[in-house]
Amino acid sequence: MPVLTETVKEMKGYSLHLVKTEKYKTNTIVWKMKAPLSREDVTKRALLPHVLQSSTGKYPSTTSLRSYLDDLYGATLFIDLAKKGEYHIISFSLEIANEKFLSNPSPLLKKGFELLAEVLTNPHTSGNAFDKQTIDKEKRTLKQRIQSVYDDKMRYSNVRLLEEMCKDEPYALQVNGLEEDVEAITAENLFDFYKKVLLEDKMDLYVIGDIDEEEVINYANELLSFDIRTPKTLSQTDISKKEQVLEVKEQEDVKQGKLNIGYRTNIRYGDPEYYALQVFNGIFGGFSHSKLFINVREKASLAYYVASRLESHKGLMMVMSGIDLKNYDQAVGIIREQMEAMRNGDFTDDELTQTKAVIRNQMLETIDTSRGLTEVLYHNVVAGTDINLDDWLVEMEKTTKEDIVSVAKKIDLDTIYFLTGTEAGEYGKN
């Protein structure tokens, strides 16, 4: 595997991460802003990046901004919102052609930096407020984005599981905020919030590609500087184990039941057992050769889909499946049996070897794109660790059967959520 070296420089108010590689034909600039999730701010944070990327002082309409991106040989700018543990993360990603491959040696990387600085620091404003038309448009779109979760019952049932499981924890908040809070946001109070974010957030800039590091540092120094800050961090608190498993059943007009089960792994990214947890999840439910897929879907024909996934920074594992109403007890029973099998070491060396190979391939596929590589590297920022990618793969490969059994014994079943249909008669139909 090619060694990708990340160089980190402390700049004015943010950290600059440089990855020099000839792997990609484009250069990628990713700006990340991290703050603890809070009920008070979550909806404003969800709206803010959409407002910033919609228009700027220099490009006062979405059309003019997109037209300028086209002028930069079809550069792309997009935003993303994510929850990693109990942090709310805003990302701005700009992908731009590497001028080395163009006949016209235009200083594209510098223009990319200038555009990012424009989006972040020169918003489309009117006095001490954002442009009202932009705010109104983006508020309507945010409401639709929040509503879309309720229309997609797979996503909705996972949201409901987390709301029940993490009831008094920030992690229960949705990444796009709360619909009832959207209306209270104004052009003025969002602008005040924007200034607060630039003063307080933990900010990181990733530049990945066939770059001249000194040149990039100069661009960053010249175009992006913020107040020095000590960003807020979370103190990790251990959640006490529930005395009994919480079981929640809700009825809606759905043709297929959604069974979502939440576990506390009690292991987070950066913990020594984290590598074994990854392998555990792969054998248990992460892949198409996993115990859940084979036993719940293939052998018992109980589920339309079934899989497990980890939330590495919060220490959670979620099992998601689609089942007929009448199969609820049997499906829950078989899923619990598979967990017991893992605790008893009831899996083969072949399963272990196959899972490691799939995890390795998945990781290599992820870093095949510069954005994927950025996400992998950013885990260290969120967790406050410094895990090298090569070391990650080496540690994962060293995982033994005993390590996996030890991890399985730490995992606690917390909450079972079932979204069921209003009429039993709808179920059991082929």
The tally of domains stands at 2
* Average pLDDT figure: 93
Rg: 23 Å
The helix tally amounts to 15
What general form does the structure show?
globular
User: Would you report the number of β strands?
Assistant: 11
Give helix % range: 40-55%
Q: Report how far the terminal alpha carbons are from each other.
A: 47 Å
Strand order of the biggest β-sheet:
1-2-6-3-5-4
- Helix/strand order, N-terminal first: EEEHHEEHHHHHEHEEHHEEHHHHHE
Structure description:
The protein is α+β, with helices and mostly antiparallel strands and 430 residues long. It has two domains: 6-223, 2-Layer Sandwich (Cytochrome Bc1 Complex, Chain A, domain 1), CATH 3.30.830.10; 246-426, Cytochrome Bc1 Complex, Chain A, domain 1, CATH 3.30.830. 44% of the residues lie in helices and 21% in strands. The protein has 15 helices and eleven strands. The strands form two sheets. A six-stranded mixed beta sheet has the order 1-2-6-3-5-4, sandwiched between helices. It has a five-stranded mixed beta sheet with strand order 7-11-8-10-9, with helices on both faces. A hairpin with a 4-residue loop joins strand 9 and strand 10. Helix 3 (108-121) packs parallel to helix 8. The longest helix has 20 residues, at 132-151. Mean pLDDT is 93; it is low at 424-430.
Keywords summarizing the entry:
single chain; 430 residues; alpha+beta; Cytochrome Bc1 Complex, Chain A, domain 1; 2 domains; 5-stranded mixed sheet; 15 helices; globular
Summarize the structure.
Helices cover 44% and strands 21% of the residues. The protein has 430 residues and is of the alpha+beta class. α9 (274-286) crosses α12 and α9 crosses α15 (401-410).
